[in-house]
Write a structure and sequence with these properties.
seven-stranded mixed beta sheet; 29 strands; about 40% helix; homodimer; Dna Ligase, domain 1; Rossmann fold; alpha/beta; about 700 residues
Chain lengths: ~700, ~700
């Protein structure tokens, strides 16, 4: 976006010494009135300059007739006037040397191409003058740390603000308000709530970097519909990781229909959604489905440490809830394992005879007659090896139950155990009692297990070694500048040669120009071979019958070559050569691929190979660089991963070698630096453990800029 | 369970003319006091007989010293005393001719084997005397239609009861109370709330049949942890279908850990969970994941008709919510399709210029300045062909918004359109305003789309033709009584013959006893053949190398047979014969299977075949009888279903023929009536459309009772 070096500027945006409001209103319910009302309510210590030619005073602050009339240049200007007036105000701000203008006014790119042109021109003038723009069509920014509430959201009237550890940054004003409201409903304080609107200039990613400089911020939550500056968000992710601050994001438009709806109001092109997933995973940004899930994850994370393992201990006063919680945990990839014998014995000593003490722990309705049961049971299980986290499920409470004591016991336990604790309680008063003690509470087991599983995933991401484990032992990798082809594609032999340069193991093949050289190649290989015509003009040769397999005599080889030559002639292809390749045996056919995404850069694909690679949909994506452990983790989530472990009497396959191929493909893709549009390697033949994996066929597609 | 003919008895349980309470307490917060308190509060018009030797009066009702002292035999007795006293009271009730005893007392099968023996003996005595038992360990039954509240739940104190169209029946008392509470939170009236506890006698299924006889009941919700009387629940489902009453159930213990937890407190064996799914689908019982989902589905269903198609129209005052709602709809299998041109034109006339009018419809923040927008927009879209249902998403409202008008307009629209309408609103006051108008409201788009998709599935189930489309043209099907085998298995030739009798197309094969007959068979077939040794003692012959493929000369055939004979001798198998079968070509290898489940009867499996059938996990289950349309619908949900349609240049495969094979296997399984434990047919070779599907290998396993 060209502003990567400038996001330090945004500090004055978040901490302005003075704020002008163009279109200031005395009515605190008008868009031009709300920010003044809020700044006064929240003790903003800087100078407020209401601009209103009609009034001497606005909401008790001295008003000014125009920007020109101001005694000093404000750090920040809020533009809350409509149409042409807004453009004029922005131009004036730029002229006066205002640092940033928040353009609340609508009627720009969201209305179509004329509005887009207006917006682009206005932004270009501002940039030329060195001014940043938030918006247009922005709900504004709010910093409850210093009372700089340059925002007109109704939500601060509906739900009382409280400063706290969370920063919310959203393209959509509605979503920023909703996330704020959901957090506050859960008793969580919010410091920053920023909405970027049309993002003519300042983006969510830049603001994420900016709020991460606020030491009070311990959690950053994003709502995105488009993402153009993946590099800036990656920098925010790195900052967050450094500071140990979880970064959780909703990126909506997951489906085609959703992406279409998003494009209709953001105008942004959509990347394939699973690439977005791979990007978030690569940078350790947890991706929530919607603002509700986002806030549920935030609550668990704010209330305690991340889960360090997948094992959940369930405690409930209802046997049915024990079952539902176990189901939910397992469905979210967590584990329910029995408690250690000594823990069970200790529980048996404390619980009535018909309670179950394995895991889940059903303390039964005995809770009704002994309100101290939680306090007696919890410390016993705190250090059990089966316990990475705790789910406490109270489906029924009310008259006769001492919920205050349950909550106090639970909070004390959560603090002492140093492990995450989630309570499930659907009754509002029960939930509120636990929340008041700082315990995370969910309406049902699915929500609790989902939050636990997601934060465990975040722990795993944080724990992984992101550096490639070792460099590929490369010869002299190709210079991508020298790549050229008469078509968009490299021929198979060029493709294989390129991959081989980057250390991938490729088929044992010879390039041949005619029947004699082909026969000579076969004699050298001294085994059955495949004969494949090879031309950059024919990327999909098998569709033309230009592949002959299992040839093992001079006669068969010459005959096959003759037939292929005839076909090539019919197809009017004159530059073809041939590949003679040793027929290979192996256990499984996998596929490797690479695509260069315009936003996210190279993306590596790995999965089931063969003819039906698309229909089988058994693939995983990774963003390079990554190491073999990352690849193996991904393979383990695929069907082919199960086969590679060796089922039905098969020996285990060489997953490590396959993973190594993927790592080297990733290195190749990074080195290509956008010069390659895609690479398809299918099949990659995987052999038994220790015997390697071989790329048998490959097709490299150059990007437009590389085409000659 | 042996009581199938008796559930009519349960009418006196739901409408007792008199209720005795053994262990009656004057304290309305004691278990023996609550039912009396509730019956008086809810105007129970029958006679209440508190049994308490210590008091002359209990909560204003005349008390009696013992059951023996009662002036008449009560219809119903609530046993709320502990231990041995409970058993004595039950015995006394049986002796006196009480119709049903609700045993609230715990300490029976849930405590282990001694408690189980006590419970079994008590139940046997009661049954012998003609008395039914609810429980033990039951929270009791409550009928708000007549005030017969034989239940001690705390929840009726926490959440005010209101009679209504819903019946809740649960094994777990806690879950019945929670479902009741969740329904009441949503403003839905509940007539029946029954908990069966240990189910020594009366089951959830029986009570489901009973409440369906109450004409006021328009919705039956179940919570199950075990299901032993699948036939009775099937009858309830048939009754519900007849009456047009949705039957929605939670069956928990979906995961192994959950099933283990359920078994630990119900003692019931678990069926494989996907068999439970197939059973519910077969009987048109919608299966919810947990009580929360159950209640969300119930709300949408009670508020309007079922969706008759998958197309959702989304309307929101936030572009972001339009995106999230589209994502949620698509993720739940629903569709977002553009509105008709004339509808879009009509919308354009009514909405501001920057609103989007395709679908989703973003009415934008203009709603703030025109509170009538909903009323203007909704009627325009009511009859659009893209609209099977409506999702109205209001992520932000509050000061300045006339939510009352939105709600009134929406309710009017819902009534007029005759299509389901769901509102998404997370703000409690906004949700409450819509609910007060009888509109279904969800906290987020995921929940709304999930409910819509589930009810659309129910509509599809109700619309399907459950009768098989035509009878298999059978010759004279085998009599299963005559089946016998020296092992648990039939040999391959016996297995194929059995399937052929039921009209399945099987391999073209000959049974041979030696090399000469094998050669003769090959000459008759006059094409390459497979030679397979055939013995009931060797069900897994390929593991022993007893399958030779693509033989097409006398020499090869004799040599292969000689090798196999040697192997058989080494394995000490002397009863073997051989199958000589024509080698078949086809497009795809599928698999068919059958398992006899002890609770649910025969279950048919269909999916991807070949060596890795288990590892691929690409199978669907169906309960017979079903027709080819049912099978094809299931195939369409599988990866193999995509391949069968013809991808990567393949012709479409004969899915119809494969489905027909499955239908006939279902008929065979039903005819076997439990005599066959399992059938594995793998591969079923599927050819191009019109060219059929052939079972190439089959293995029939007899049930224990059939083994000779």
């Amino acid at each position: 976006m060209g502003f990567n070096s400038r996001h330090d500027d945004l500090n004055t945006l978040l901490e302005p010494a003075s704020v002008a409001i163009v279109g200031a209103s005395d009515n605190p319910d008008k868009i031009g009135g709300r920010p003044i009302f809020y700044m006064r309510r929240h003790g903003y210590a800087g100078t407020i300059y209401p601009i209103n030619p009609q009034r001497a005073e606005v909401q008790g602050e001295r008003a000014w007739p125009s920007l020109d009339a101001l005694p000093a240049t404000p750090d920040l200007a809020i533009v809350a006037v409509a149409g042409e007036q807004a453009v004029q105000a922005v131009d004036k701000c730029a002229e006066l040397g205002v640092s940033t203008a928040i353009v609340i006014s609508a009627g720009f790119s969201e209305t179509g191409s004329a509005g887009k042109a207006l917006q682009d021109a206005m932004t270009a003038r501002a940039r030329a003058a060195g001014m940043r723009i938030v918006g247009p069509n922005s709900q504004g920014l709010a910093n409850f740390g210093n009372g700089a509430i340059a925002c007109f959201s109704t939500m601060f009237l509906e739900v009382e603000p409280a400063d706290g550890p969370v920063a919310v940054i959203s393209q959509s004003g509605g979503m920023s308000a909703m996330i704020y409201g959901l957090l506050r409903q859960r008793g969580i304080g919010v410091r920053h709530m920023h909405a970027t609107g049309n993002e003519a200039d300042v983006t969510v990613s830049e603001l994420a970097c900016a709020v991460l400089r606020d030491p009070q911020v311990r959690m950053v939550l994003l709502y995105l519909e488009s993402l153009q500056d993946a590099d800036v968000l990656a920098r925010a992710a790195a900052l967050a990781r450094e500071r140990g601050v979880p970064l959780i994001a909703v990126k909506s438009g997951r489906s085609e229909a959703g992406a279409r709806a998003a494009a209709s109001h953001t105008g942004a092109m959509a990347s394939e959604d699973r690439v977005v997933d791979a990007y978030f995973e690569h940078h350790g940004i947890l991706r929530a489905r919607d603002p509700h899930e986002l806030v549920r994850w935030a609550e668990l994370s704010l209330r305690g440490p991340l889960p360090r393992g997948p094992r959940v201990v369930v405690v409930s006063n209802s046997g049915a809830s024990c079952v539902l919680a176990s189901d939910a945990a397992v469905e979210h990839g967590l584990q329910i394992t029995p408690l250690a014998d000594r823990t069970q014995q200790a529980l048996t000593d404390r619980l009535p005879g018909y309670a179950t003490t394995t895991n889940p722990i059903d303390i039964t309705a005995a809770l009704l007659s002994n309100n101290g049961l939680f306090g007696q049971v919890l410390p016993v299980i705190a250090d059990d090896p089966a316990a990475d986290m705790f789910l406490i499920d109270i489906p029924v409470a009310g008259r006769g139950y001492d919920v205050e004591t349950f909550a106090a016991d639970t909070a004390e336990f959560a603090a002492a155990s140093g492990k995450p604790v989630a309570v499930v309680a659907w009754q509002e008063n029960v939930a509120a009692t636990f929340r008041a003690r700082g315990v995370a509470v969910y309406a049902d087991e699915q929500q609790a297990a989902n939050a636990m599983a997601s934060l465990y995933r975040l722990h795993q991401w944080q724990a992984r070694d992101t550096a490639p484990r070792h460099d590929a032992e490369q010869g002299t990798p190709s210079s991508f500048d020298e790549l050229s082809s008469p078509s968009r594609f490299l021929s198979e032999s060029q493709s294989l040669a390129l991959l081989s340069d980057y250390g991938l193991t490729v088929a044992d093949y010879r390039c041949c120009t005619d029947a004699d050289t082909a026969v000579a190649a076969w004699r050298t290989i001294n085994a059955p071979v495949a004969l494949k015509a090879c031309s950059a003009q024919l990327p999909h040769k098998s569709e033309h019958g230009l592949v002959a397999l299992r040839l093992n005599s001079e006669h068969d080889l010459r005959e096959a070559l003759h037939r292929q030559a005839q076909t090539l002639k019919d197809l009017n292809v004159h530059d073809a050569t041939w590949i003679v390749a040793r027929m290979q045996g192996g256990l499984h056919e996998c596929a490797l691929g690479m695509r260069h995404d315009p936003v996210f850069g190279p993306v590596i694909m790995i999965g089931s190979g063969g003819k039906y690679v698309e229909a089988m949909q058994d693939v995983a994506l990774l963003l390079p660089p990554f190491n073999t452990e990352d690849v193996i983790r991904k393979l383990q989530g695929l069907r082919i991963g199960t086969l590679l472990t060796g089922v039905r009497g098969d020996p285990p396959a060489d997953m490590e070698a396959l993973a190594e191929q993927a790592v080297r493909l990733g290195q190749c893709a990074l080195a290509a630096n956008g010069k390659i549009a895609s690479i398809d390697i299918n099949p990659v033949l995987v052999r038994a453990q220790g015997q390697g994996a071989i790329a048998l066929d490959a097709l490299v597609e150059l990007s437009n800029s590389s085409e000659t």
